[in-house]
Amino acid sequence: MTLPGAPADVPQAPSPAAPKVAWPLLTAAGLALAALLLTEGTGGAFGLNLAVWTALYLGVVTWRARREGTPPSREGLTLLALAPVFGVTFTLWAPTPDLGFLNALALTLCLGLGSAALRFPGLARAGVLDGLGAALSSGIHVIYGLAVLLDRFPWAHLKPAPAAPRTWGRVGVGALLTVPLLAVFAPLLAGADASFARALDALLHLDVNLDRSISTLGHLIGWLILTGGLVYGALLAARPSLLPPAPREGRLGLIETGVPLGALALLFTAFAARQLPLLLGGALPDGQTYAAFIREGFGQLMTVALLTAAVLRVAYALSTPESRRRPAFRALNAAVLLPLTVILASAAQRWVLYTQAYGLSETRLLGAAFLAWVTLTLAWLAVTLWRDRASRFAYPALLLGLGTLLVTTALNPAGLIARVNITRDLSGVTNAQRTEPQRANAGELLQLGAGAVPAMAAHLDVLTDCAANPGASGVPECIGASSLTRYLRDRYAGARDPRAWTLAHARARQAALRLPVPTGPVTDPPEEISVPRRR
User: Fold this and answer.
1) Which InterPro entries match (predicted)?
2) I want to staple 323 with a disulfide (CB 3.0 to 4.6 A). Which of 312, 319, 411, 508 is the partner?
3) What is the pLDDT of residue 187?
């Protein structure tokens, strides 16, 4: 057989077959079984089990890589070590809904990208496209990783030898193959005939539950697919990214990149000049509403800042090495970044004005965290551009984002928001942005999860004072004391599965148990919880 385009008279060596090894599939199966044991029956709740499994995965894959003679890369170890840290965030705190989604996304990224870079150093010097390619490839590995592990498994070694002394070994292989067959077909037949199910239960003294058996089997397969993809990327993949590497050197000169950067600098300078009086004044401009000037304006300014970082990085990538080292190129970057600092200050001021008017919320807290990350990222980009090392921008920017997310989670946003808003209610806070005191709303605080329960339980009198909310439509925005007490006790007073234990739920349970038992029947449905529209 000849390769396409090769002369017919030149013999071509066949491609070497991939070695057959058993440990990758056994590793993935062991990790999948551990995940099943830690999560099955918890109702999808995560806590201590998530931290334990991520730490177990980190230990197993790094030990396995060292055993195979491949020293793990520093970048891969760093990202994989961050995975248990994010697992601990679910153990110590109960993140708010949006923050919980971001933490889960960061945990997935650390596992996938860390596994892809475990045996391949150089992620710290990789560009943005290379990093995105590796992250995308780690997701693709989950699709076919398990299939590769099954293909690499030495199935021929399971064939029993004809020698008599190995009879018991052959019986063991047969029993091993029998277990999954019976586990699948016995529940199916029991579900089809009640009398057969009773006979099977009497014979084996087992509670045959078809739905539970199928669900458990489905969960195990799902965990096998996930761990198979991660283990394949960490221990067997030939390269971290399936995509070709991005070009390292651009072809544009200083004029081609200087004209758009100069125009952008002029635009930013004009906008910053208009913002300076507002920064010094510290109040809402005349004729402007909070919705137009602050909420929408903050999002738009954050988009501008993030897009600016992308534009400067792309301009650097498209420029020739000679253009990058010229002082004029550095001056153009500085001309864009300096007025951008005023734009960031304007965004920060709008956040402060909005918080003074309406207190804290999950969206506003995440907005502050995003502003902090964008500011740190732009500062790092300025350093790399000035030192002509912008090719090393992506990996530290990723670590800055992960670190900002961890710090935000460590602040316990649910408890912080509840304390701030309840304190504003108790103190009757008024300022230039809010002339009437704001009421704390129990419905909004309940949506934050277990982290807000201790503060709510300590201030039931405030949250159940159903006076009309000044500044709203005059409709009470609270619920009755008995209904709120019953809701907190019913949801948080019960014991939690030890595998899904979290410190936040333990504190919420203690706070709920200290509440008085409602006088009405606990089977009564709670009163309607009114949640006003988010501002």
Assistant:
1) DUF4153 (IPR025291)
2) 319
3) 76
